């Protein structure tokens, strides 16, 4: 049995030396040291030995097992190192190659304009409010002095979902909701921005979906002069300190009196050009003093409280500020267009 163990050791060591990968090495380990391996089979015959022979053969068997185990571990370490070196060589990176450019995104032009306007009014004490885009007929129309059958409803061609639900045609419902929330008990000074929807034919200056920003200030002793001061500050901050404003009489159902605000044309500085159609002025928003009926429906006493409201389209502001001549540019997601206004 001694000779048999020594022959088994020599055979195992030769195979371990010749192994070329870890899989082969594992197969050799199982073949010689496993439960059904060659060494185990030899040791099962120790029962036939005499008491004197068993310790001697046992010592030889342990030595053979240790020798094979040590050889397996050394070979495994060499093969692992070799495999790692081959992998590193295969996955080597040429650090002299130029890097791949990374496309860096940025805020959409409309998002930037909206945030700029919001920051401007926050600085003047306004808070930002939000409201649902799917609105009720009451808050979209009736609470804003537009009862059923009012002819001014035709000014806003509406997407109706049901007889009572619709896609909001302006952000003014947020003003009505905010005043209703305050229950006529405290002042309101807020702006709101968001998407609005109207059944309109898309062209260079119109879209069925666009954005609006509206503002509302309700308190005691609020006057038209306060509105003019706020709008003058807005125009100068947004378009430059040299800009002048003018207010022209207009009509909105939810304000009385109502005005349209124009700014002096930045192209010709008021002298008249093709951009301002020779007038020297460009219309940018509508505004007015909150109608007493609107205050009353929201729970405010119009004999005590007064206020003003204004509304503007961020698309129009962006078009005037940056010279964009087609509103559809904001929605087609042409990367070439958007990159022009990305601020790093």
TrEMBL record:
Q: Name one GO cellular component term.
A: cytoplasm
Q: What is its main location?
A: cytoplasm
Name the reaction it catalyses. Answer: tRNA(Phe) + L-phenylalanine + ATP = L-phenylalanyl-tRNA(Phe) + AMP + diphosphate + H(+)
List keywords of the entry alphabetically.
Answer: Aminoacyl-tRNA synthetase, ATP-binding, Coiled coil, Cytoplasm, Ligase, Magnesium, Metal-binding, Nucleotide-binding, Protein biosynthesis
Summarize where Mg(2+) binds, as residue positions: 256
Kindly report, in one word, the top-level EC class recorded for this enzyme. Answer: ligase
According to the UniProt entry, what is the EC number of this protein?
6.1.1.20
A single GO molecular function, which one?
phenylalanine-tRNA ligase activity
Q: Where is the Aminoacyl-transfer RNA synthetases class-II family profile domain?
A: 109-340
Cell compartments where the protein resides? Cytoplasm
- Coiled-coil positions: 61-94
Q: What is its quaternary makeup? A: Tetramer of two alpha and two beta subunits.
Q: Give the protein family.
A: Belongs to the class-II aminoacyl-tRNA synthetase family. Phe-tRNA synthetase alpha subunit type 1 subfamily.
Name listed for the protein in its UniProt record: Phenylalanine--tRNA ligase alpha subunit
Q: What is the lineage of its organism?
A: Bacteria, Bacillati, Bacillota, Bacilli, Bacillales
